[in-house]
Amino acid sequence: MTTVNETPLPGRQADPPRTWPGCTAAVAALGYAAPHFWWGAGIGAMFPGDFAGAPQGNLEAAIGYWGMGAVAVFGAVLSLALVRPWGRRIPALLIAVPAGIAACGMTLWGFTYFAMQYLLAADRVVSSPAFAAKDAHPQAAWGLFWYGLFLLWGITLGIAAWRRLPGAGVGGARTRS
Predict the structure, then answer these.
(1) d(Cα 89, Cα 17) in Å, to the nearest integer?
(2) CB 157 within 8 A of CB 30
(3) Direct distance between the N- and C-terminal alpha carbons of the chain, in angstroms, rounded to an integer
(4) What is the DSSP letter of 3?
(5) DSSP letters along 61-98, please?
(6) How many CB atoms lie under 10 A from the CB of residue 84?
(7) Distance from CA of residue 25 to its chain's centroid?
(8) pTM of whole model > 0.85?
(9) What is the reported pLDDT for 1?
(10) Three-state DSSP class for residue 58
(11) Chain centroid, CA 83 distance in Å
(12) What is the SS3 assignment for 6?
């Protein structure tokens, strides 16, 4: 007869917390933030369009590059706060509800881009002349990456926010008391 020792090893938990959604959302947020900082510094690498025609050196550029980069870094910290022990100091509803709203917005934003690209490719809609040149620019392909990042960020942030809500089970399903 064999016995099974169910005692966890020292320093390990028997049921480790599932932190992958928050960590993945944080990586996606930092992946969004980094290019905004280098675009603000005047480096056009990975820009989804004509960087020479983009605003430079004015308030619009400061908000679009530096401001959005800073917001994304805040989003990375928020994503980690949902799943890390230090984030438990923040009341669950105070952090999970805004994160859930942001997750819905980002997921919808990313999905809408891909839906529009499908409709353009299927000739169901026609791009306006003002946007036709932008859509034809070789750098416009980076939009697929950036909006895919929005989808990844939104979905994983939503999972992390759902799990942070009071009464959410380990798998994300609501439990009844």
Answers:
(1) 17
(2) no
(3) 38
(4) -
(5) HIIIIIIHHHHHHHHHHHHHHHHSGGGGGS-HHHHHHH
(6) 15
(7) 5
(8) no
(9) 56
(10) coil
(11) 15
(12) coil
SS (H, E, C) 18-43: CCHHHHHHHHHHHHHHHHHHHHHCCC
Name the pLDDT band for 156 (thresholds 50, 70, 90).
very high
Distance CA 146, CA 136 (A): 17
Residue 98 CA from chain centroid, whole number: 14
- The whole-angstrom distance between residue 32's C-alpha and the CA centroid of its chain comes to 8
Q: Please, what sign has the CA dihedral across residues 8, 23, 171, 162?
A: positive
Q: How far is CA 101 from CA 65, 80, 107, 155, 162, in A?
A: 23, 16, 10, 11, 11
Cα dihedral value 76, 78, 84, 90, nearest 10: 170
Task: Tell me the average pLDDT across 126-150.
Answer: 74
Written as six digits, the tokens of 22 are 């928050």
